[in-house]
Design brief:
The complex is a heterodimer of chains A (about 325) and B (about 325). In chain A, about 35% of the residues lie in helices and about 25% in strands. Chain A is of the alpha/beta class. Chain A folds into 2 domains: about 240 residues, Rossmann fold (3-Layer(aba) Sandwich), CATH 3.40.50; about 70 residues, no CATH class. Chain A has an 8-stranded mixed sheet, with helices on both faces. A 4-stranded antiparallel sheet of chain A has the order 2-1-4-5, with helices on one face. In chain A, strand 7, helix 8 and strand 8 form a beta-alpha-beta unit. Chain A starts with 5 loop residues before the first strand and ends in a 9-residue tail after the last strand. Chain B is of the alpha/beta class. Chain B has an 8-stranded mixed sheet with strand order 6-7-8-3-9-10-12-11, sandwiched between helices. In chain B, strands 2-1-4-5 form a 4-stranded antiparallel sheet, covered by helices on one side. The radius of gyration of chain B is 22 Å and the shape is globular. The chains are: A alpha/beta (about 325), B alpha/beta (about 325). Chains A and B meet through helix 8, helix 9, helix 10 and helix 11 of A and helix 5, helix 6, helix 7, helix 8 and helix 9 of B. The complex binds adenosine-5'-diphosphate (2 copies), iron/sulfur cluster and magnesium ion (2 copies).
Chain lengths: ~325, ~325
Amino acid sequence: MNSSSALLDVQNLRVSFSTEEGTVQVLKGLSYSLPKGKVLAVVGESGSGKTVHALSLLRLLPPTADIEEGHVLFEGKDLVSLPERQLRKLRGARISMIFQDPMSSLNPVLTVGEQLKETILAHRKISKLRAKAAAIRLLKKVGISDAARRYDQYPFQFSGGMCQRVMIAMALALKPQVLIADEPTTALDVTIQAQILRLIKNLQQQTGMSAVFITHNLALVADVADEVLVLYGGLCMEKASVQAIFKNPLHPYTQGLLNSLVSINKKEDLLPAIAGNPPVPGKECPGCPFAPRCQRAEKRCFQTRPPLFGKREHQAACWLLEEKA
Amino acid sequence: MNPIEIKNVYKTYTRKRFLSFGKREETPVLQDVSLCLKENHVLGLVGESGCGKTTLSKIILGLEKASSGQVIVDGKEISKLTKPAFKKLRRLMQVIFQDPYSSLDPRMNVGQIIGEPLDIHGLYKDKLSRRKILEELVKSVGLSPEHLTRYPHEFSGGQRQRIAIARALALDPKVLIADEPVSALDVSVQAQILNLLKEIKQKRRLSMLFVSHDFAVARFLCDEIAVMYKGRIMEYAPAEELFSNPQHPYTEALFSAVPVPDPVRQKKREAVSLTARPGMENHPCPFAPRCAYVCEACHTAPLLAQVRPGHFCACAALPFKNKKSSFAV
Ligand SMILES: Nc1ncnc2c1ncn2[C@@H]1O[C@H](COP(=O)(O)OP(=O)(O)O)[C@@H](O)[C@H]1O
Ligand SMILES: Nc1ncnc2c1ncn2[C@@H]1O[C@H](COP(=O)(O)OP(=O)(O)O)[C@@H](O)[C@H]1O
Ligand code: SF4
Ligand SMILES: [Mg+2]
Ligand SMILES: [Mg+2]
């Protein structure tokens, strides 16, 4: 994770919401860099801040949210302070996003082809006819058979998996440098999920783009990711290469997550679950967010937040690693 | 006696077709489903969304009527029972749903939620004994008595599912019907709830119909597994037999799609392609459009036949299927 070759550099991102109970910070200083041509997986339980992080990269947060601090550097520009007009040119064209629920991201009263064509025309000065041809090519590219006929169909005539393919086609329409995919397969069946993961990986390799792949399921990232960042309570717990995360996880939370994955390969009597429940924003422990559930927690874990320890290629935020640092 | 037996159940939903002047559209949702839940066993019903899992659960619970076939609960065929007789029988079966957010009434506190079935059936002597039963129940699902006065919104997803389980256990049922009870939970919490379900099954000698789309989860909990596709049982076997000797091409494809948490092995695995080939919609085998093994033999509708001891599979091409299995995990 050398930041000089980084395409996207996220620095100390802090995001809070104003709620009835006051200001609640949900991202507490997140930093990472996305190398060119690589896939970074952001893994975390629900509520850990994955979506808030994704939305803040492109400043798509709701009005009650506030980016209190931090920078998102992309090609020398800071997306946090970039004027809205310039940011709009980047969204979709240079950095695009796909979401969990493909159905609700498509307009139900327009044909799939129209929507794809409009996306292309919004950013490229070409004729309608050429835009249509480009749209059909894209549908083929994401594995939609009979693309010319499908072009004239409406979203309700597509299955969930096909809608997600269309969303991917839209995201790729303008050949972005970065794709941000927020749980793109969570709503799909396993067989469809496997196809969509392969598709994203193949397209990423063909086009050389970088991707941030967000998921709550650690098992999924083995296939798609080059680097992994484990998020918990709005903080990075561990980041490393995908091999290192699975082979040599350093953080007790990552270790617990890996242990609690249910295996299809053997029958277990009891699963090594992590006890307790994920932190509630605004009510978390001032020290390590994982301390209340951690079997190895010491006194200081509850009091002082551990920084990231370790070498640049493999870092984890746990006091146990302090001596080794 | 087997707690639940399902014999040749069919279910078709009919609805008026859009813009077609009274013509009715018939959607067959279950076709010739036969299953048996044995005492103190967990029967897994596994399949992709829309294959009919919830419909079958609803039929067993009397929330939907089968179009034909028999559902036998505790030795009695439910369609032949009077309303009061069914109500009495229904008490033996309790249900847990997927979404712990919508399944609990937000205006009731935990004590009221768990105590409601007890109140309805008047199953305690006095206030003190009611309180005692409730305390036992919350403790048995890993919550504490203080939680009884709190409201659902104060709990996380996993804790809510514990509350739903406690409520289901209140009437001391013989059978639990769990419809994707961990699908909405995070991995770290999912493991806790699976452990809890296994524990209560053993302690209370419960029988369970466990509906899931996740084979790994089913393997952990189930004694028998039925694999369903488009409303039909494609394969049905003791769990360990199914995992060591998957027979049906669909089961194989599903296994190959389960992600393995190991980058080296996962990158080498090849998921079986399941892209539907157009023009085969009316094939006698519902899986044919996506099947890698479709051949001449498939031109009659496949019947569920015993292929190994206790192991049933509905695939006409099975004898001709290349035994070099593509399933490698
Ligand atoms: N509009 C909002 N108002 C207040 N809090 C919010 C809002 N959106 C998200 N949050 C809170 O921020 C935290 C992170 O949410 P999110 O990023 O959606 O989690 P994830 O995507 O990891 O499941 C959660 O605790 C959530 O309750
Ligand atoms: N009330 C209904 N009317 C018409 N079709 C229905 C109804 N309920 C379910 N279906 C259809 O029956 C099929 C099976 O649904 P369901 O049992 O919910 O599947 P699963 O639980 O396996 O996801 C689906 O195709 C669904 O659209
Ligand atoms: S810092 Fe302490 S509480 Fe946090 S993970 Fe490490 S040992 Fe556990
Ligand atoms: Mg999210
Ligand atoms: Mg269902």
